[in-house]
Amino acid sequence: MVQVARGVHWLRMPVAFAPGHVNLWAIEDQYEDGSNNGPCWTLVDAGFPDDATRANWTAALTGDLAGRPVRRILITHCHPDHFGLGEWLAQQTGARIWMSLGEFMTAQAWFGTVPASDRGLMADFFVLHGLAAEQTDAMRGESGRYRQVVGELPLAMRRILPGETLRIGGDDWTAIAGYGHSPEHLSFHRANDPVLIAGDMLLPRISPNTPTLAYEPEVDAVGQYLDSIELFRALPDHTVVLPAHGDPYVGIAARVDALQAHHAERLALIVSLCAEPQTAAALLPSLFKRELDSFQTRFAMGEVIAHLNHLWQTGRLRRLPKQDGVLRYTQP
Known about the structure:
Layout: E1 2-5, E2 8-14, E3 21-30, E4 39-44, H1 51-62, E5 70-74, H2 80-83, H3 86-93, E6 96-99, H4 101-111, H5 119-128, H6 137-140, H7 145-150, E7 158-159, E8 165-168, E9 171-178, E10 185-190, E11 195-199, H8 221-230, E12 240-243, E13 249-250, H9 252-273, H10 280-287, H11 294-313, E14 318-319, E15 329-330
Parallel strand pairs: 4-5, 5-6, 6-7, 11-12
Antiparallel strand pairs: 1-2, 2-3, 3-4, 8-9, 9-10, 10-11, 12-13, 14-15
Helix pairs in contact: 8-9, 10-11
């Protein structure tokens, strides 16, 4: 565990998939509600549900974090590398999960058997956007995948409202909602000795996935994401940014510029590729130079459809009427 700012400590947990780790955070806290006394911890994110992360948490709770109880566990969003061990960690510490309602209810839907979360629906959606039916065969047999990965979810939590101020360790931390990467992602900003626990919204080296999913087929996830990160410009540029992947850094404005430029470049490329009508699947080889396995293809398809939705809804592309059961996009 490494202290990266006043009262804020960094725990990096390895994961078996890219980018190979997730950053979790422990904030020095103090009980202020009369229910208890003395110092405590507020944790941010729980990590991926695997044996290595459980072992690392056990070592931390009996080592660097020992001597202070855990008061609460803040969750940035419901993806398994952030929320997957939430219930396990809550059981180990006796602490309550705090998160946005949008993320909590999305996790409950993905965990259950809600028809809209069925992988067969997602497979049909990708076929609609030009993916060959045989490329979706594996996906159709994976309904309940989130439940298989996560294993267990909390049945209750304390809701954090966007814009809400949390008192942690004598400081005010503001919950900042972000959209496009997940339904109601929360980042946490401390103005005094400025720190931003950014989750996946402002990663230092890569852009987070901004997918379109079958149950919200026309969402402009790219536009939502770009609008969300623009709001971070209001924070002081010397704010220490603590991302969920990669190393802490300073320079919010430059990072927002870089992320916006990346998406502008991708959008311009897609427009140029659509001089003739194109499906999302037909664009994959031009946008992803490496060979994609079936898992990567799903992420790539969701990302390309999101960019096409943005271009269509902003008038830079036309979406043609469905032909042969497939949607195509072209320049106006």
